[in-house]
Amino acid sequence: xxxxxxxxxxxxxxxxxxxxxxxxxxxxxxxxxxxxxxxxxxxxxxxxxxxxxxxxxxxxxxxxxxxxxxxxxxxxxxxxxxxxxxxxxxxxxxxxxxxxxxxxxxxxxxxxxxxxxxxxxxxxxxxxxxxxxxxxxxxxxxxxxxxxxxxxxxxxxxxxxxxxxxxxxxxxxxxxxxxxxxxxxxxxxxxxxxxxxxxxxxxxxxxxxxxxxxxxxxxxxxxxxxxxxxxxxxxxxxxxxxxxxxxxxxxxxxxxxxxxxxxxxxxxxxxxxxxxxxxxxxxxxxxxxxxxxxxxx
Length: 297
What we know:
Elements: H1 2-12, H2 16-25, H3 33-45, H4 51-63, H5 68-89, E1 93-94, H6 102-121, H7 126-133, H8 135-142, H9 153-165, H10 171-181, E2 217-222, E3 225-230, H11 231-253, H12 263-271, H13 277-296
Parallel strand pairs: 1-3
Antiparallel strand pairs: 2-3
Helix pairs in contact: 3-5, 4-6, 5-8, 6-7, 6-8, 6-9, 9-10
């Protein structure tokens, strides 16, 4: 009797396969597009020179690749925010009060190269195509024609060279952009973002009223647009440039690991010149010195 009741009970229970299939049929909860945009924008605002911040933002964008158009628009909006405010108001802009300063735009420019590289490895070339389409807008936002982003011109050139080397941009496109950049870094006087101007209209000119935080700010005026950069941002830019140069040297020194263990040997072999009579003479002299050292020891 007990066996009969047990069999009836087991027949009423669903099998493991049924439960598994039922769980698979449950649709995954879709992410809120607004929340995805806000989080990606926040990651763009907090980019720095470390590779981890770029990887985190790139992985997040690739995770929600079905919203590639929205995420691409976030990059453009974040880059163009300050430019639109400057052109509209034509007044003093405090860079430290805006979340995308000159440094942040430079960080986003470096992120674009890293992002395109990761998107190609993940076989989602749509991000690359959209960046190719809007590369002129990106350059105009990072290094505007009014000279307010003259300090970012070298950044733009470096990233464009990297994109061309990785075949993301055509050489003709890079050359066209380069022709337009020649006039943006040839400004009179010192760098407008990293050193004070000597213009008598500037806030820090002799005899002019000094602001409350004059000791911690740098002021420049270009084409009627006054830009005040906090010295903390200047120090941050110096530290970030130092970190990037350090990583660049590491990439230059890096050699193949498990994939090609003989790469370092092959590189040294190519750099070594062929043997000549001088090499044999030097080897003989060194051998004599070693024998003399052994006799005297």
